Amino acid sequence: LCHPPLSSPSLCRTHLRPSRVTIDDSFLTETKNTQKRKLSQKQKTLSCQFSTGGHLSPWPTYTSGQTILHNRKPCSDDYRKRAGSWQQQQPLNTTKPRYLEQLENYLRKELLLLDLGTDSAQELRLQPYREIFEFFIEDFKTYKPLLSSIKNAYEVMLAHQRERIRALEPLKAKLVTVNEDCNERILAMRAEERYEISMLKKEKMNLLKLIDKKNEEKISLQSEVTKLRKNLAEEYLHYLTERDARKILIADLNELRYQREDMSLAQSPGIWGEDPVKLTLALKMTRQDLTRTQMELNTMKANFGDVVPRRDFEMQEKTNRDLQEQLDSLRDDYEEVRKEHEILLQLHMSTLKERDQFYSELQESQRTSTPRPDWTKCEDVVAGGRDRWQMLAEGKNSDQLVDVLLEEIGEGLLREKDFFPGLGYGEDIPPFLRFDGIVENKKPTKKDVVNLLKDAWKERLAEEQKEKFPNFFFNFLERRFGPGDAMAWAYTIFENIKLFRSNEVMSQFYAVLMGKRSESVYTKQKETIAQLLKEMTNVDSQNEGLLTMEQLSTVLKSTFPLKKEEKIQELMEAGGWHPNSSNADLLNYRSLFMEDEEGQSMPFVQKLWEQYMDEKDEYLQELKQELGLELRDEVTLSKIREALMNIDPSLDKQTLNSYLSQAFQLPVTEVPEEGEEEGIVIWLQTALERLHMADIRRMGPREQEPAS
């Protein structure tokens, strides 16, 4: 038998390279079985058609006929050179064998029938070549074992590669997930490092300023010490000169006294026997000496009359030092007393204001008061009996007890309702309540309502594009309960949060939902609580959840630098500190931020909220006093801008523009610059009400400290 040219096995070897497409094993098995059945039939047909007399038609291996795939390269450079030389030697009119032409036509036909647009196209493309190779294996009996082993080796390699690809697919997905996780961690670490770097830079600037201040003080003290040393040297020289002069004077006086005594001793033996002329001359000379001595004595008195003895000088100097120390001590005491006096004056003024306020409240209560009700009568009415009523009434005044009683009564009535009447489609009706007909009362518990509102807040904070809060609320209910029950849940939730005003979560959600408070108030309060908890955690180096009272006070003062000492004291008392407690007492700071099942915060967080509202009221009251207008008066944007800068000089431009945009209901980008506010006027009462709805707070002390 004539075997085909060497190009056929090489071409088959070229096309049997492993494919990178992953195909389902069941699909391949079914395809192979079908193709094998077709192959057996086609082998019989082709062997009958193209085998004549038990052998194939010969065809020279150098014939330059068309190859099966024109874009395939030969398997080796030697073959390409031999084929080229054979093409030059043989004539071009040599025809192909019929068997080769039939195989090429069959291959083209099968390739055209394949759907190459699917994922398994490359794997299916190999099937026609497998069939052609099977034809060769069956027809070339002599080379059948070798060709079959070659085919099996390629099939085993293909299966092995497919298994490796299938095994690597999950690793690729896991690699992508790990890469994303690592990128997120890297970004978080970089953000934290940037924050720490900024804080360290601020601390560095503060320390540099402190160093400059200390250097200036050092230079000033050095100059003062130099001046004092110079004065001391001058005084020392002066007193040294005075001492020497005094010693000289004393020596001269002693010498004169000795001379006089010598003269008296010399004259005494023969004083009555001397010559009168000699005595007269001696008397004259003595008188001259006396006159000269008297003049010297007067000169010495004139020159050294103000000189004091060194002992007296040292005593006076010691007395002067003692008096100076007493004076310094008295000055320090005076400064302390003056500061205490100023504090007492401020306390006195605040006490006077409180007294006037209490007096006016007393007069108002006396005018409108009724006999104090006996609240113990409610024990038999409220569900839970005496114990539950005492728990509800603990620490509440009469007004708050009325609210509690109304909530209990309203809760019972709300439970009895099975349906709510629709409010219609009026413009004054909130969008999430616009409905005609009756809606079902879902009757959830307070715990269920609180959890639902918390989920709504989480989804709201996670939103990228903010829509109006009422629309978001209704869309949230549609996503949670479906379009059919969304309206029923909207009415149910609305009635519950309108009733339970004493619940923090419900009252805050109701205020934001009805437009009585801005969302930023809630979000800023949550951020403040989270920041405070983070600061406490940073101080807790052992991560035990415990802090001393001194550490708690330090954290509060660093987190709220503008709060007064009494405000810090109130927060510490709300956290569990008492005046008789020591600073070493430990406090579980994590318990300060816990909530009960109905969303009620601990007294510490409640006190934070109360202080925030009080500080906002004081801030707006200062703004009103700075403007000097009545609530019914009109005020311009420029006046409010100026008043805000006067009461809070630390306001930056961005925060100031946000306050003005809230007061005048303008977009932040459209707030006019300073000097361009003409024509923008609003009632003062309206502006204060809008500011009260927003998150406004003091950014710094009212009086700027002078730069050192």
Automatic annotation (TrEMBL):
Coiled coil: 197-231, 313-347
Keyword Coiled coil assigned: yes
Cell division in keyword set: no
Annotated Translin-associated factor X-interacting protein 1 N-terminal domain residues: 104-213
GO cellular component: cytoplasm
Keyword annotations: Coiled coil
Top-level division of the source organism's lineage: Eukaryota
Protein name: Translin-associated factor X-interacting protein 1 N-terminal domain-containing protein
